[in-house]
Structures are given as C-alpha cells and as structure tokens.
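Weekly modeling sync, notes
Attendees: S.R. (lead), two postdocs, one rotation student

Agenda item 3: backlog of single-chain predictions. S.R. asked that every request posted to the team notebook include the full sequence so nobody has to chase files. The rotation student volunteered to paste the first one in as an example of the format we agreed on. Action items at the bottom.

Example entry:
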Amino acid sequence: MTTIPEDKLEGIISKGKELEKQLGQENTSEKFVELSKEYSEIQPLYNASMEWRESSIEIADLKNIIEDESSDNDMKDLASEELSVLEEKILKLSDEIKLLLLPKDKADSSDVILEIRAGTGGDEAALFAGDLYRMYQRFSDIHGWKTEIISISDGDVGGFKEVIISITGNGVFSKLKFESGVHRVQRVPTTESSGRVHTSAATVAVLPEPEDVDIQIEEKDIRVDVFRASGPGGQSVNTTDSAVRITHIPSKIVVQCQNERSQHKNKETCMNMLRARLYDYELKKKEKENENLENSKSEIGWGHQIRSYVLQPYQLVKDNRTNHERTDPEKVLNGEIDSFLESSLYGPNV
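Predicted structure, as returned to the notebook:
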C-alpha cells in the first residue's frame, strides 16, 4: 500500500483554510461565486485530509500512553483498543484520499451503458457472459446503483450472446471505467459431459453516458428504422412496429432497442446509446492521436485481455494489467470486485 506524502496533505489543508478565510472576507458576488466553486471542488479532499491529520495526532498520543512506563495497565489497555480502531480508520481515510487525488476524467460522474458480448467459446462463452452480467448486477446492488436492461440476446443453452444495460448512480463511470476489455474464463462447462477444461471469453465495454451538450447529433447524420420487436417483452410488443434501429452514417455505428412497447421510448434509449458510443469513439480517436497515451490505462479496448478467471484445475482470478490476484473466484463473480477496481485506479503497487 503506497503512502501519501504528509507535505501534500498539509498543502491541501492550507489551501482549504485559505479559501475559507477568503470566502469569509469576500464582498463581491462574482468573486464569491468563483471562490465557492473552487472550495466545493477541494472540500471532500480537504475534509478527508483534516480528518486524517486529526487521527494521526490521536494515534501518536495513544502510542505515547502505551509506551509510557508510568501509565497504568487499564489505561494502556484502553489506549490499545482505541489505537486499533483509529489505525483501521486511517487506512480507510488513506484509500479515500488516494482516490480523491487521482486526476479526474470529465466523464467520472457519468452514468454508464455497459455492454457484454459472448466471444470465443460457443455456448460456454454465452454462459460466461451471463456470469459477468450477474457479477456487475450484484456489484451495482452492493453500491446502491440502479440497473436496467436495454437490450438482450439469449444464448442457446443459457447465458447471453449479448446483453446491454444502463447503470445509474453516484460515480458509476469513475469506478467501472477500466473494466472494458476481454475477460477470459477457464473451467469445466456445465455443457461438457467428459469433464474437459474449456477456455472461453466475453467482451465488456463500459461507455460513459454523456449529457446532450457533450455530443451533438445532427438529424441528417442518422437513419432511423422501425421494425416489429421479437423475443422477450410481452405479447403486445410483437404486434406493432415498436423496435427502433438507428444508424449513424458518418461513423457507421448502429444501435437498436426493442425493450419498450413504445416506439418513442425505444428511440430515446437508442439516442442515449448512440451518444455514449460516439463519446467513446471520440475519446479513443484522441487517444490514438497522442503517442504519450500508449501505455495509459485508458487505452484498454475491445481486443485487450484484462482479466482471467480460472475455476479449474485450481482457483484464481488475475488482473493481467496490475497482476492483482484473488483465489476466491466465486466471491468475485458474486460482485466482490472492489480490489480489482482499486488496483486499476491506484496501479500495480497498491
């Protein structure tokens, strides 16, 4: 676990105190608004740094009590108990501060559209895509996020050939942004009668859902097709031309939705998906133009294998970028992926 330089924290605290002082003295509304905006941006980091410093001082005092030969045993025992609580607290604060110190992406506060597609491996790949869907669904539940299926294509023996969901909540993209890429599984499939270990893969794409102002789509650049929905959705879905497919002509990106009975709602969902795809498309285009981003985490793409899930002959989940490992794949596939997300954010040494 990397440590945070104390001089950096003291600099943050000094900056926060100076802004508080300036806000208390400022009379002009324009300058007050400017200072308020700057203070609101630094406030979470400032508050966490202040709490970290106060806890550090308390820890030092408690250690002095424990090491002091004149302290009685009852006092030492009480100090030891308080020290244990404070040391756990300061570890959590350190993780929070490191996250707050990370450079912010413009899209960090965005909701996301998450796409999972079965890759190589036939029926087993579709089953694995289903496992990944449940993993992200469970992770979203743990964090109090709302998920909604946009589009789904069932596998022949279970799982999904493709599933697209929206995830809304606080800081969704900031947590999931490095999950895009190829996920590979090694196990004996339920469809395998002879007990042979198979390897299959599924692709995950995490797209920030931008606001209307981020991506402008001209009517002349899109073609809208409507057609009769098929598959799940209820009897009345299949009796009207409610499904919508939108093609963005310049980029050749195609999106479609048939989940709602209303053509209008399906078109609205399609436009949100198209904005997300175009936003991601523009980001990747800029990355390719900048050679300095060659080794950046943000370069993780569709063809890049990011994580391996080995269930047989041994049990291991490994992130191929940071080498972070866990030996409890069942828990990981049940949504306990925080340690992998943190290793992607902080780097391989965390």
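Discussion: group reviewed the output briefly. Residues 86 and 306 are 36 Å apart (CA to CA).
Action items: rotation student to repeat for the remaining queue; S.R. to check formatting next week.
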